[in-house]
Amino acid sequence: MLTLAEFIRNMLQRWFHDRHRAAQSMRHQLTDVSHLVMLQQVEKCCYITVNPVDWNIFSVKRSGKQWTIDLARKTCICNKFQMHHFSCSHALVAARERNLDFTSLCSDYYKRQTLIDAYSVPIMHVSHPSSWVVPSDIAERGGFKSKDQETIRSPDGGSTCIIFREDNHPIV
After folding, report:
1. Which of 130, 152, 120 is nearest to 161 (CA)?
2. pLDDT tens, 29-73?
3. How many angstroms separate the Cα of 61 from the Cα of each of 52, 66, 71, 91?
4. By the 8 A CB rule, do 25 and 17 touch?
5. SWIM-type domain spans which residues (predicted)?
């Protein structure tokens, strides 16, 4: 069991390190995937006309359809903007009209720095149980064996598993 735990820890350690390095090498404020999606949204903006209603609200039209966008509340009547917390093409056109940075319309979950922060926590190894300092009240409950405690005995003197309360079950 310890070998499996050690294998998983090593795998997670490698995984976090590799993803942290990849996130640091990204060139944009958004993650690489988010940046590509944003570029696809920008391509859809070509034939959309924009009519400002006020400083934050815009009406956009394309192919006879009309959408209303509120940049302050980050909403669009297509619902993609508020559902995904990522700019729809309608919001991008409105943002371009106001000279806003497109990344300001995206949730932090799509940003490079969030990815860096998520993978910056190191996965450390766990020391051998013999080196653990276990408080006596925990050791008395049977959750751990203290260094000088070899077995845990039930009141009748037999060996009983503390967790499963079964006779002849390995003592935990």
Report:
1. 152
2. 999 999 999 998 888 888 889 999 999 999 999 888 999 999 999
3. 11, 4, 16, 12
4. no
5. 67-99
Q: Which residue has the tokens 């006020």?
A: 54
The answer to whether the Cα torsion of 69, 70, 74, 75 is positive or negative is negative
